[in-house]
Amino acid sequence: MLRHAGVRCAVLCVVSVAATAAGLLLPAALGRAVDLLLTQAPAGRWVACCAGLVVLIAVLDGCADVVTGTVDAGATAWLRRRVVGHVLALGPRAGARFGAGDLVARLVGNAAQAGTAPGAVAAMLAALAGPAGAVVALGLIDPWLAVVFLAGAPVLALLLRALARDTSACVADYQRVQGRMAAALAEAIGGHRTIRAAGAEDREAARVLAPLPELSRAGHRMWRVQGRAAAQAVTVAPLLQLGVVAVAGVLLARHRLSPGELLAASRYAALATGVGVLVGRLAAVSRARASTARLAEVLAEPALTHGSRRLPDGCGLLELRGVTACRGGRTVLDGIDLAVPGGAVLAVVGRSGSGKSLLAAVAGRLADPDGGQVLLDGVPLRELTHGELRGAVAYAFERPALLGTTVEDTVAFGVTRPAAHLVRAAARTARADDFVRRLPRGYDTPNADAPRSGGESQRLGLARAFAHGGRLLVLDDALSSLDTVTEREITRTLLAPGAGPTRLLVAHRAATAARADAVAWLDGGRIRAVGTHRELWRLPEYRAVFGGAEGSGS
Q1: What global pTM score does this model have?
Q2: DSSP label at 213?
Q3: Predicted pLDDT of residue 554
Q4: I need a surface site. Which of 47, 74, 235, 428 has the fewest CB within 10 A?
């Protein structure tokens, strides 16, 4: 973030240090004015100098506040863009690794706190420049004054070091508990219908808020650490200040210091021991550092990388060679070897938990396998450019996320935007055109004003996949919410033989599998058999996949 802030952060440092420098010049000018006034010499120039320094300090402090706000806002925006982009590049792994609620907490709260890092660092440098400059000024007035202060300075340094260490640990604990609460809240919001149907609102509220006592303890620990450090520092600082003033008084009595220099020395002693400001600045840096560490955990997760190759001419031959994929320490796909000829329709069937959805994700590179490789027309998917890959593979899901401002935006959502006539043609193929035209503004209806059933949402998701075409169409249980008549109409068109994309569909109904060119029977993460639905239907175990109650579906 400091590198990103660049020039603005440098300007903030210069302005902050300049304000500190002006503050360091003021005691010297004030002391000189006092000495002149006591000797009844002309002191107007020095009084004016003091007034000018006061005005300059006020102006520089105001500028520092404005620049700090600008730097913090810019750093926060940049950080959020970077983390959001990385989360979207990670795909489903981000939610599985951190949880949706915890990710939101990191992107909202932690990013805002981490975004203050450049301003906090600049303020910390200015805060350090004050005591350092004050010690130098004491040495210039009389070396013994600096020696007295430096004798006790190591104690202050140790206190500040302990504060930084303990504050970072406490803030990290506090933010972790916040993340757990956010994750629990996101789960409750996602399952609100189930919670309400079960009459478990109070119980779920208690579950979400259960970490509150731990959060309270972490917060109290954080303030106790800061308060204890401030109290210790405030105990030591006056002793140092008193020692400097006492030595200055002795030097005044011996006529080695003037009254003005004594005044300046007392002010410099106060600046040198101004650890209250340092404690606050150090705590701010520690909070920003802890927040940055939580965001760094997200950025440390490796995202999918893309190659530079493009696809040759081909009809969409899909090959999985020795594909192995693990999730949660369990091997879900184990050595899958599968080939789907270009333009063919392959149905993937299997019991729940057999790995069908993961196979569908790997086939279009929504996820990478842990072993083996996936090829499209002879090119490994890892080697394709991002645009080439996403232009060649289209997806439709069981519960599609309908993104975009209007219904037309939803269907056109993708790397490239298809023409309006292609959007409408795809909607007709997905049997979505009729209900879209009944909306208040048709395809221009805002999504917020277009309530949909589960089946209508699936039809829009199918229309989106059809609109973008490509060589490979992957349907991950994308027909499950359709009524029987609509499903039959769509599958008749979708699975019709002839030229078209290669189609890989996760099927739960025997009727759907029966219309495919071939069926891959997935069992326990392995391909148990590949054949036509009619051939496999002879096997009792295969019929058991569908519950044996749908008939042959042929």
Answers
A1: 0.71
A2: H
A3: 46
A4: 235
